[in-house]
């Protein structure tokens, strides 16, 4: 279980692992281009080698790429639709050059076509992205907070995509955002709530397809359908909620990336590391019961 944050690439991609190391990241996430569109940061063999050298120098274990925000596979506008296909293909290719483990993306909104036609178009678009892709970076779908008709606020909707007959063989995965999930009605504030949410996830998407967490507290209430991130322990999920989440042994090999304000991300990572240490100490603590304590 490793912790990190979303990191700036100001000045060029090779700066990302250096910036990650400064705030205590063990893993990190970044954009490789301007998230709203426009500037695409240069990437060739020389840049990739410098990036990878810096990752090794700063002992980063994994790194991930977040796709730009303009993606919409379910748009009725063909320029946006096929532009999304092209953008994700390029992100996967660029990420593969950087030996990135995952690219995660929001898939857009069903508002133009509705869920039935929208799903059909999403499946066709993702098939175009993946059918000739030869790289090793895996594409993940990120769950949404549920505002409007944004795709992926409920597990069943994501499951329809991951398990779609046209897409099943491409092994799409899930990046689970704790704040988005909370806003969509999935509680994680207690061990019992975590167990129930993971049970629902396993029944629909499958726990084996859960690959990464975006680790964010929530300023908005459970089921609010509002995307409002908070620093760990400063929101309505709370420190105990994250302790419950990290304490579930089924998640012990997954990594957690904070998408909180950069100024406080170092404290978020430190708090998560402390929770990990406390959880590990409890697991490893010797059994001090004597025979007289046994029933």
Question: Can you put this structure into words, describing what you see?
Answer:
This protein is α/β, with parallel strands linked by helices and 295 residues long. The protein has one domain (3-293): Divalent-metal-dependent TIM barrel enzymes (TIM Barrel), CATH 3.20.20. It contains nine helices and ten strands. An eight-stranded parallel beta barrel has the order 1-2-3-4-5-6-7-10. It has a two-stranded antiparallel ribbon with strand order 8-9. α5 (155-162) links the parallel β5 and β6 (173-177). α3 runs parallel beside α4. The two termini are 36 Å apart. Mean pLDDT is 94; it is low at 288-295.
Give a summary of the structure in a few sentences.
The chain is α/β, with parallel strands linked by helices and 295 residues long.
Q: What's the arrangement of secondary structure elements?
A:
Blueprint lengths: L2 E4 L8 H8 L4 E4 L14 H13 L4 E5 L11 H20 L4 E4 L8 H17 L7 E5 L12 H8 L10 E5 H6 L7 H14 L5 E5 L2 E2 L10 E2 L7 H9 L8 E4 L3 H23 L11
Parallel strand pairs: 1-2, 1-10, 2-3, 3-4, 4-5, 5-6, 6-7, 7-10
Antiparallel strand pairs: 8-9
Helix pairs in contact: 3-4
Poorly predicted runs are 288-295
Number of domains: 1
Q: Radius of gyration, rounded?
A: 20 Å
Find the count of extended strands (DSSP E, 2+ residues): 10
Percentage of β-strand residues: 5-15%
């Amino acid at each position: 279980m490793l912790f990190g944050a979303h990191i700036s690439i100001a000045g060029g991609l090779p700066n990302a692992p250096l910036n990650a190391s400064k705030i205590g990241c063990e893993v990190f996430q970044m954009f490789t281009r301007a998230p709203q569109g426009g500037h695409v940061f240069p990437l060739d063999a020389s840049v990739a080698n410098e990036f990878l050298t810096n990752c090794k120098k700063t002992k980063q274990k994994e790194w991930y790429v977040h796709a730009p925000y303009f993606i919409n596979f379910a748009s009725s506008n063909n320029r946006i639709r096929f532009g999304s296909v092209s953008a994700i293909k390029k992100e996967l290719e660029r990420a593969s050059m950087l030996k990135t483990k995952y690219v995660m993306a929001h898939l857009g909104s069903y508002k133009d076509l509705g869920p039935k036609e929208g799903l059909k178009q999403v499946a066709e678009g993702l098939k175009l992205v993946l059918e000739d892709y030869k790289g090793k970076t895996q594409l993940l779908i990120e769950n949404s907070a549920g505002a409007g008709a944004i795709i992926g606020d409920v597990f069943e909707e994501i499951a329809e995509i991951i398990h779609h007959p046209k897409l099943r063989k491409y092994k799409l995965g899930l990046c689970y955002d704790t704040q988005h999930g909370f806003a969509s009605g999935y509680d994680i504030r207690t061990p019992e709530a975590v167990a129930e949410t993971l049970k629902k996830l396993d029944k629909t998407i499958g726990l084996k397809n859960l690959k990464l967490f975006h680790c964010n507290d929530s300023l908005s209430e459970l089921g609010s359908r509002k995307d409002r991130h908070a620093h760990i322990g400063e929101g309505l999920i709370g420190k105990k909620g994250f302790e419950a989440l990290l304490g579930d042994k089924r998640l012990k090999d997954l990594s957690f990336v904070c998408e909180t304000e950069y100024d406080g991300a170092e404290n978020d990572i430190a708090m998560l590391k402390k929770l990990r240490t406390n959880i590990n100490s409890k697991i490893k603590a010797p059994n001090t019961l004597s025979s007289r304590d046994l029933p």
